Fold:
Amino acid sequence: MWILGLNEADNAGGAYARPARIHCLRHGCSLGALALAVAVSVPVQAQDAASQPTASAPAMDEVIVTANKRAEPAQKVAQTVNVVTATAIQDLHIQNTIELTQVVGGLSLTMTSPSEQSISLRGIKEPSGGGPSSLTVESYLNEVPITVFDSFASTLDIGQIEVLKGPQGTLRGRPSPSGAITIATQKGSFTDYSGYIDATWSNHQGRRLEGALGGPISNTLAFRVAGVHDYNDLTGVRDIYNGKRDYQDTTVLRGTLDWAPSDKFSADLMGQYTHQKGDFYRQIEGRAPCAGDQGGAILVSSIACGQTFDLKDKIALTQGANPNDYHGKLVTLNARYNLSDRIGIVYVGGYNNTKYFTNLNFDFAGIGEANNFARDIDVTTKRRAISNELRLQSDGPGFYNFTYGLFQQNTKSDGVANLPPIFTNNATRTTTNDYGIFTNQRFQFTSKDSVQLGVRYSKVDIKNRLNNSSRSYHATTGNASYQHQFTQDLMAYVSYGTAYRPGSAGANAAPVAAIPASFGNFGPEKSHSVEVGFKSQWFNRRVTFNVALFDQKYKNYITSQFNIACTGVPNPNGLAFATNDGTQNGPQCFGTMTGNGNAVSKGIEVEFHARVTSNWSIGGIYTYTKAHFANALLPCNDYNGDGVLDVAGIPKVQKGRYVSLCQENGPLGSLPNTSFTANTSYDFAIGQIPAYIRLNSFTRSSSYFPQTGAVFPGYTTVNGSVGFLTPDRKWELSLWGKNLFNKVVQDTDGGPWNTFGVPSGLRIGTVTNNRELGVTLRRTF
Structure:
């Protein structure tokens, strides 16, 4: 589901516009029905001065988006744009972007572990460990490209989030095949001081303190500062060996300066620091092994010998901790100089410096020191990126509008992994230079018909600084759309778009040191998509109904397969043990393998929202996506060597191979075909006390996990809140709950775990979060 709330978003028209208050209404994202692929939009309702809403149910406010790098109503954009406003974030108690999954239909944000985070749209799964060049969904903060880690941090003083669906091949910083997420922060006002502070407590040991303050320094200079400290025990997994639990502790600090010395020039400078640390444990299910199990092959008893666990018990057995620690520094600069009333020069610059450390203890069976061989892998990754974008563009009415732009980004990535005694200081050192030249042309042929054309030339240079090898990739991508405005409130469109992702250029290290580096690398990918849809509003714009169909085909889709068995010594005569040295009791060989294979994604999105009365709204969004491989030969787990995925028995690898290969036509990842979100919001009063009730739900169908052949069940979660405000609306008390009916199901699967080269009787995986109940007290000033 989705609620878009009444929002005052500073500078919602983009960083290049003068800071202004734009009111965005609380919508519900929509509802859906069936079919084949295009572009649905967000809960968006255009309202013009001529329309006169009724007293009982007023029209909904217009939502302004910057999907095309210019401020325009979302209902007039020829692509799917889902918008989450600042008020929606507050109303739904969205405390990090992962929770947007329950708000934006068709969006999936997953964290298999702190080092394996991914964003997926339209069934297209982002490869794990592939690096920035393989992202299927790019993320931007104030139009500057950011890492997945930055985008997964706590939400803080957000003005608006836009989820753009479909190929982003022209206007964004880098081409991305399935979409982009743009996050705009709140800006300082040149006229008023404003801010808030809120404190939250939850039964998941949640403790969150957030605040912001901004206002004028002078007539031409404004500021805003914001910060948040957020602690939560995540899914609550408990390690009975070391007594520790999952947790995540996040601090974000931000400062912004807005300068507008004249009507011709404006600039916005933002600096942000993020520190996130925590422990993350992989939970187990099954019977913990005892010495003598498996015909005596299990030599040492588990700490939980003989005990049986279910994933819902949320128990881990590793002896060591699993810490992770992330530091991120981000600076964005947005400036505009108006050459005339319609033409301006826009600059967007960014600096992003991150450092990430994670340690993973492989003692999932709880054997302890007796199994002290290749037990802990620690990885440190450093990344520094500097980006610049310069655009000459026109805005406003008329037959012709244009954008011409240049983009450049330099990224240095340094990583080192240690898995003693197998390997130490396994390093990667890469430098990537992205270049883009792009243009977008808009023609308003009649008052009802318009065409938009765009083209982009991209060049990517990737250098491996360890061996001084380098490779360049070139591509031309583009888009074209036609839209017809049947009436002021009914628009239909068709669009075509292409996207490109470069290969890794052999710069990545091998997933496991014992196998060739080719299994950690991949070639370039191309895709093209057709979208058809319409956007409409009815009953004096109190009802929004949008439908979109899309069909996207991928050539050499970049993919990664998690937890795939491998061998350092292929057996030319038959199956090989999945170990580094090829012996049954040698150190296990498993890794995330990358590759390429053709794929298809097609589906439908249907959105509905209605303002039933002046204080009651309902809405929903339904998505159906069929995303699958198309006869792709990819790394797989095939323990019996018959060419079909299976994970039963002792892990082995096909004859003569380092890694088994299977012909794949199944889903691209553990993503549901169908999702449905629904919401309702009702405002009322108890005497002089304003109050409200908010409810939203998220339903997803079952999904198939291609690495282990597991099927995850579908489920529905329901969230809700009840709130009370003081008559002056400066104080607000909210009682809220997430997953109110405590629906807990499996959502990732690591497959059977083996120790000493034989099955331990345990599997590893994760399940969804338990019910969380909380209270938030907010003071607005």
